[in-house]
C-alpha cells in the first residue's frame, strides 16, 4: 500500500492562562509524541474522548495550527515547518482539505451553496470560465447528493445534513488527496449520519481520496475505517486494523471503549459494562502513564514511568506497560 501522509513525533503545547485574573501561564501538552501514517485511498479512524487532542492533531495537518515540534510528511516531503513559497503552500492546501463538525459556522451565510464552492475553485484556479465552472459545480453537487436546483440557495435554506454535503462539495471540488474529517456527522441524526457516511464512502471509491476520520463515536469509526488509532490525553494508545482492534483490543482503555460500544448485532447479549472509574487527570501527562488512575490493570511501573510504543503484532501497536 502506498503511503500518502505520515506524522512523526507530533507535539502541540498550548500556553493556558490560569489563576487569578488569568495572570498565571501554564504549558498544556495537548498532543504528545503522535506518530501515524495514512495510505492512499484508505480511511484512518481517530477516536478518543472529548479534549484528547483529536481536532488539534487534524488542525496541525491542515496548517490551521503550528506544531510545537515533529514532522508531517505529505507524499514524502516534510510540510510541518511551512516555510515554503506561496505556490507550494497553495498546492498543499489544495491537496489536504478539511470538513468540520459545524457545517453552519464553516459556511458564509452571504454566499449561496454554489458560490461557496466557486470561491474555493477560484482560489485554486481549478476550473475557469463561467459555463465550465457551472457544469463542474453541477457535477460536484451530484457527487454529494445535492440537486442542481440547490446551487443558488443560501446555507439557511438547507438542513444540517444537506449543509454538511455542501461542506463535502467544497472540499472535494479541489480534487484533494486527503480530507481531514473532524466529527463530520456528530451533530446529525443517526439516519442522516448513515446517509452522509455512505456518500463519503462512494466519493472515496470514485476519487481515491484518503480520509482521517475523527470521531468520539466508536461505532461510526468502526463502520467507516480501514485502520483505527485510539487517543487519550494527547497520546496514541493503540493502532491496528479495524478488524484487529475490535476483535483483539490490547490496551485496557481500548478494551473499555470497545466493551462500552453497543453491539449492532441483535442476537448478541447487550453489554452492560460500567463506565471507567475516575476522571481524566491531566496532571499525569508527561509524568507516568496518563491512564494510570483509571486503569483496571494498573501496576507500580505505571505510576513511575511513561509507557513507550510496542508493536504487539504486525501493524498492531500499543502504548502500555503490559506489553513490554
Ligand atoms: N487554542 C488553544 N489554547 C489552549 N488550549 C487549547 C487550545 N485548543 C485546544 N486546547 C486544549 O487542548 C486539548 C485538546 O483539544 P482538542 O480540541 O484537540 O480536543 P478534541 O479531542 O478535538 O475534543 P472534542 O471531542 O471535544 O472535539 C483540550 O484540553 C483543549 O482545551
Ligand atoms: Mg474536536
Question: In words, what does this structure look like?
Answer:
The protein is of the alpha/beta class. It folds into two domains: 3-232, Rossmann fold; 248-324, no CATH class. Helix content is 31%, strand content 25%. It has ten helices and twelve strands. The strands form two sheets. Strands 6-7-8-3-9-10-12-11 form an eight-stranded mixed beta sheet, with helices on both faces. The protein has a four-stranded antiparallel beta sheet with strand order 2-1-4-5, with helices on one face. Helix 4 crosses helix 5. The mean pLDDT is 92. Bound molecules: adenosine-5'-triphosphate (ATP) and magnesium ion.
What distinguishing features does this structure have?
single chain; 324 residues; alpha/beta; Rossmann fold; 2 domains; eight-stranded mixed beta sheet; four-stranded antiparallel beta sheet; 12 strands; 31% helix; globular; binds adenosine-5'-triphosphate; binds magnesium ion
The total tally of domains equals: 2
Work out the helix count.
10
Order of helices and strands: EEEHEEHEHHHEHEHEEHHHEE
**What amount of the residues lies in strands?**
25-35%
Mean pLDDT: 92
CATH class (first level) name of the largest domain: Alpha Beta
Tell the overall outline: globular
Low-confidence blocks of residues = none
The CATH architecture of the largest domain is 3-Layer(aba) Sandwich
Distinct ligands, ions and cofactors found in the model: adenosine-5'-triphosphate, magnesium ion
* Helix percent band: 25-40%
Termini separation (Å)? Answer: 28 Å
Counting DSSP E segments of at least 2 residues, the number of strands comes to 12
- In this structure, how is the largest beta sheet organized? 8 strands, mixed
Widest sheet: strand order? 6-7-8-3-9-10-12-11
The CATH homologous superfamily name of the largest domain equals P-loop containing nucleotide triphosphate hydrolases
Amino acid at each position: 500500500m502506498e503511503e500518502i501522509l505520515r506524522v512523526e513525533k507530533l507535539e502541540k503545547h498550548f500556553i493556558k492562562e490560569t489563576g487569578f485574573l488569568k495572570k498565571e501561564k501554564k504549558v498544556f501538552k495537548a498532543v504528545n509524541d503522535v506518530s501515524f501514517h495514512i495510505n492512499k485511498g484508505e480511511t484512518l479512524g481517530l477516536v478518543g474522548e472529548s479534549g484528547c487532542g483529536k481536532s488539534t492533531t487534524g488542525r496541525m495537518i491542515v496548517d490551521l495550527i503550528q506544531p510545537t515540534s515533529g514532522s508531517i510528511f505529505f507524499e514524502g516531503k516534510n510540510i510541518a515547518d511551512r516555510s515554503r513559497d506561496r505556490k507550494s503552500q497553495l498546492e498543499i492546501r489544495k491537496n489536504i482539505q478539511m470538513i468540520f463538525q459545524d457545517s453552519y459556522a464553516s459556511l458564509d451565510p452571504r454566499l449561496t451553496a454554489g458560490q461557496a464552492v466557486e470561491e474555493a475553485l477560484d482560489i485554486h484556479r481549478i476550473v475557469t470560465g463561467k459555463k465550465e465552472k457551472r457544469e463542474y459545480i453541477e457535477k460536484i453537487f451530484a457527487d454529494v447528493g445535492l440537486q442542481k436546483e440547490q446551487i443558488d440557495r443560501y446555507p439557511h435554506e438547507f438542513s444540517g445534513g444537506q449543509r454538511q454535503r455542501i461542506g463535502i462539495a467544497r472540499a472535494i471540488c479541489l480534487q484533494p488527496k486527503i480530507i481531514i474529517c473532524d466529527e463530520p456527522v456528530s451533530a446529525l441524526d443517526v439516519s442522516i449520519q448513515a446517509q452522509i457516511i455512505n456518500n463519503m464512502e462512494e466519493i472515496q471509491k470514485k476519487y481515491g481520496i484518503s480520509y482521517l476520520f475523527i470521531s468520539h463515536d466508536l461505532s461510526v469509526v468502526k463502520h467507516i475505517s480501514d485502520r483505527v488509532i485510539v487517543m487519550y490525553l494527547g497520546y496514541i494508545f493503540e493502532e491496528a486494523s479495524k478488524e484487529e482492534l475490535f476483535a483483539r483490543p490490547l490496551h485496557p482503555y481500548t478494551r473499555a471503549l470497545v466493551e462500552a460500544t453497543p453491539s449492532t448485532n441483535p442476537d448478541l447479549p447487550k453489554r452492560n459494562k460500567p463506565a471507567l472509574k475516575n476522571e481524566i487527570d491531566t496532571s499525569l501527562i508527561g509524568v507516568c502513564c496518563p491512564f494510570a488512575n483509571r486503569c483496571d490493570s494498573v501496576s507500580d511501573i505505571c505510576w513511575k514511568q511513561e509507557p513507550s510504543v510496542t508493536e504487539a503484532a504486525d501493524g498492531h501497536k500499543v502504548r502500555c506497560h503490559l506489553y513490554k
